[in-house]
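WARN retry 2 of 3 for item q-0093 after timeout on previous attempt; input resubmitted unchanged.
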Amino acid sequence: MRRPNEDEIRGKLDEAAGTVKENIGRATGDLEMENEGADQRFGGKIEGGVGKARRKVSEGLDELGNKLNK
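OK item q-0093 returned
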């Protein structure tokens, strides 16, 4: 199994930062910050998903290569 790639890590960081912004915006009544946080969280989720898909494809290709080399 491969390590998480940059897209996955960046996605998780954006998700976390977005959640914090969203909660601060909600607590302070700042609708703009709340929406910005929600957008960042959603974008992070997408980026993390793309990174995970890339990693899974790479793992599959590694596995296929190992089977072909036997």
